[in-house]
């Protein structure tokens, strides 16, 4: 199976209004795909649709296939969300330690000894490019990390689940150049091992990190000629 995610004619609707799409694309194992388009066109909404975490009132149709499973609308579950993990634009850091944060999610999904869980979390911190900066303070509060480190901690939390696909929503939009470079290095290192869908407003970043690009156009509505026939 080469494709981790395949999407055909995906649309997101709010009651009778088409908000997003139709859009079709596939994410190949080991490749990084940019998701681009003007503000408000629906990039974040597409990411949420892929993990079946749309806000109340929004529904999707069209085909969504994750690995060898077709996900019917409304049938997303924990299994889907451990294989495909969404890292939101604003890093969510919980009140505990750096290690607690890296383990969050994994603790709920993996029945394993503390030792095994910790190994997985440490590996994920390494993969996210944060290990060297936090190895000597895993028990200190995650809230003390810088914005760039928080973003990489969220990446580590996602990677600890060993997902086949990662959906990254503008992971560097709030960062200075130095922090951005570090996050980009971490994303770059995922090439070959994960399918990554990266929402970015920055064409240079897409050029640096992505193998292919999906351009999201304004939604097709019933009144536009493109929707007829
Ligand atoms: N819960 C909701 N109910 C109704 N409409 C919504 C809801 N959430 C998002 N939308 C609408 O869906 C459209 C797409 O929003 P979305 O945030 O996905 O765009 P975006 O391309 O990610 O924008 P940006 O680049 O500014 O982050 C917008 O018109 C937005 O107003």
Automatic annotation (TrEMBL):
Q: What positions does the domain ABC transporter occupy?
A: 5-228
Q: Which GO terms describe its molecular function?
A: ATP binding
Question: Which domain of life does this protein belong to?
Answer: Bacteria
Q: What's a Pfam family in this record? A: ABC_tran
Under the heading InterPro entries, the entry gives: AAA+_ATPase (IPR003593), ABC_transporter-like_ATP-bd (IPR003439), ABC_transporter-like_CS (IPR017871), P-loop_NTPase (IPR027417)
Reply yes or no: does the keyword Ribonucleoprotein apply. no
Mind listing the UniProt keywords for this protein, alphabetically?
ATP-binding, Nucleotide-binding
> Can you name this protein?
ATP-binding cassette domain-containing protein
